[in-house]
Amino acid sequence: MKFLINGYWKDDKSEFSDYIVSSYDDNAEHDDEIFYFGLNESDIKEAIKDKEDNILEFVITSYTKLKS
Question: In which region does residue 10 sit, left (phi positive, over 0), alpha (psi from -120 to 50) or beta (all else)?
Fold first, then answer.
């Protein structure tokens, strides 16, 4: 499953929107469209709750499921 995330970078607080993340490499021909692999919906919810207290280099502020 893929998601669109919004957030900001921890180092300079610059914001980003509509970055595509995926829980795994499910479509190898479009890898260049994926911003980050390895985040499923529960990981995203946890990252939103934890804010800057995680190993990611960015903070997720919101997300939506991307329709297949």
Answer: alpha
Whether the pLDDT of residue 30 is over 80: the answer is: no
Q: How far is CA 23 from CA 13, 41, 55, in A?
A: 25, 8, 16
Largest CA distance in the chain: 33
Model pLDDT, residue 29? 55
The secondary structure element, H or E, covering residue 48 is: helix 41-50
Higher-confidence position of 30 and 37: 37
Query: DSSP string covering 13-47, please?
Result: --EEEEEEEESS---GGGGGG-SEES--HHHHHHH
Domain boundaries, the chain: 2-65
